[in-house]
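Q: Fold this one first, please.
A: Sequence and structure below.
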Amino acid sequence: MKKLYLSLFAGIMLANINAQTKRIAFIGQADVYSSNIPTASDGLTYDDDRAAAVWFMETFLPAHSASVSGNYFSFQDVAEGADISNYDVIWIQSDGATYTERLNEWPRGTVEGNGDKHCVLREAGFQWNGQCSQLEDDFMWKIKQFYKSGKKLLLGNFAGKGLEVFGVFDGLSNPWEYRPNQSFGDTAANPANTAGAWGTNWSGTATSILLTGITTSSVSCTNTSQSIEFLGTGTEKKNRALQYNLNWGRIFDDAGGSSSTLAQRRQKFQTTLNAEILLENCDGTEIQAARFNPRNTGDGTIIWYGAGVYDWYAPGGSNQNVKKLTENSLLYLAGGESMLSSTDLQGKQKVGIYPNPVSAILNIQADENVSSEIYDMNGRKIISSESKTISVDKLIPGNYSIKVKTGAIYKTFKFIKK
């Protein structure tokens, strides 16, 4: 009987551990994660996508083995029947290696002026006139079914072109017009860009927890005050970007065209697509990353990074914040703020707020000096403070969030004003 109890207890404990473990898959082009596909017919190798896959398999998964398990699949694996249904998050990475104009219909191949339609999904890499319509259809269907089941996606670089075919814009008229509308970049590093450090600007106030462990710099930009360095000095840079340019395109037209203000276009982007802008240029005309919340009942959530500084192959320098932001995003998608804050990314600094609910004074518990910002549920900043005690008695009752900075760490908490 004692052995039976022990066996049952062990079984319950094991089931509980398994229930807490999240499963994350990486989907890339190569047949194995460590290949840069030297067989591509245009002669270009997939160094960026390989670097991302190697980091995921050899660094990210071992670092989080207590709470995350994962695997690598190729696009072709998924199209040909690999079971992805039991994963919580899928990271689809495609920097594509080839010329950016050939990726404008990704995951479909583009059609050349002479009618040739290239394949950009096979394990062999880019293929001249490599017709693969069935492979494309099967891949898109599998990812769409995953997303429509409420699961989460991280889309890297040109995988953002798949937002429409994965079902994110279902229900909108001409949904393909809501894909990122601007792409550019080189197939090889431009020596003129090597010397300086490159970064861009963070504006994701609702998900500032994604900045955990990332040091930001102060900037005076139209919509943000935080800049992140992604590529250090001496890093070879290709500046391959996929982004939304708000100076033309469907969002521009929906907002009223040339008679609209930038603020109206940004609002149209966020409300129409149910999206939060994460990365942008300083004047706010280029959206370089976003979180797409479910537009339709049962849909999942997507984080997409398309900035030219989201570069995985970084010879000669550092792309540490590319890795850190990706690590944070995967953990956040897998388990929300609790999973990200429970991982010891920066020494587990103890930060908290009390009381909650609060009627008059909100206290911040922290060992270091703090600065904080309080936002209402519409994302409007209403209080800024550098004190650990904040008077909130004049706030109307309701739900709020507070973003607390201690050192280089940002944490966000929700609270209720009574």
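Q: Good. Now the second chain.
A: Here it is, same layout.
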Amino acid sequence: MKTTRLFYKTAAVVLLLYVAVSPPLVSGDTGRRVNMTLVRGAAALGAFCLDGSLPAYHLDRGFGAGSDNWLLQFEGGGWCNDMASCVDRSKTHRGSTRFMTKTAVFTGILSNNASLNPDFYNWNRVRLRYCDGASFGGDRQISNGTSMLYFRGQRIWNAIILDLLPKGLAKANKALLTGCSAGGLSTFLHCDNFTSYLPKTANVKCMSDAGFFLDAIDVASNRTMRSFYTQLVSLQGVQKNLDPNCTRAFYPEPSLCFFPQYALRFIKTPMFILNSAYDVFQFHHGLVPPSADPTGRWNRCKVNVTACNPHQLDALQGFRTDMLGALMNFFRNTTRGGMFINSCFDHCQSALQETWLSPISPRIHNKTIAETVGDWYFGRGDDVKEIGCPYPCDKTCHNLIPASTTDSLAPNAPDHKSLGTQLSPFSLAFFLLYIFLCTMNIQLFGF
């Protein structure tokens, strides 16, 4: 047994050293650092982060032919649905600009490099920082006796837009509203409202990345996500900001309109849906939340899809079927919408250069995500709706399961970044090996 453990430890160290000195999968531009802008006028509108700090965004100015075009990206980062989790969140960079980094790296769809982002590189590109915990949707404030929490996501959205309008947004020629994960859900919530701020002559469209959260039944036959969203909508006062046509249609359960699958048919602005049919966040928190797997039968499958047993693979294929079913009306009947639904075990693919546009990017019918989104936005094709084949047939995927560990329903979730594509090769290898060694009950470096 000691010999076996020594073998695993030695193998681990060798692999870590190998990865540490290996060249990156994608070379070249590492992204542009863009400074934060606090919205000074937000206080007058009552627009505050959870802790009362001012909201913020990062703006990288457009140039040349793109100087009158705008791309706004909602940041993601989970949600909070009760006072305790929201208080905890308010003490992190997910609930306060006081704890946020003051610069943001723009890559993928936010890149200003024409070779890495050919359709949007010279647009005005804005990243909206996320600090409310309800996908920019709430409007309420609560004191628990010791703390005041500001659930002002809707006001933050309005304040940022009003700050950008005199900076050129009011004269936009073309505009795209997008976002990742919780920010992708924000895109559904605010798409039509975004259009209302802009000139009637502007070409305005929206694109959600990893934001098509399903009202799923988990492996224990519960609707964990529905319960979570119902609590969130109630706590943060979101209902009054949901589409009234949707809430009337789903009365007496208006909180269902927080789910994109129910809100989608009421959105008038052209929408593009970018999502994995096996989205790892939804896999880990919607299909198999911890509450549905108390004995950990899914632990190995969650870390490595090749370790899933036939029953677990059937559940995953069923989740894909449910997602495609929820999108079928959109797929068949919308003439202005687009989609890219691939079969990669991933979460958020437009902000990462590796998945947005690179030699190793995922593809459907040999088209990258960047090419597909560009074709849809600029009308380069009659019907830009791509659906990939089911796992495991797509050989362009990385299937980096650990990506889901970077987003959580918990308040202290770290940045929305895929560990498989954003972390250094050394850090990723260490993370994977740590999970493996824990599974083998082997200690590495004393922890």
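Q: Anything worth noting on the second one?
A: Residues 278 and 319 are 7 Å apart (CA to CA).
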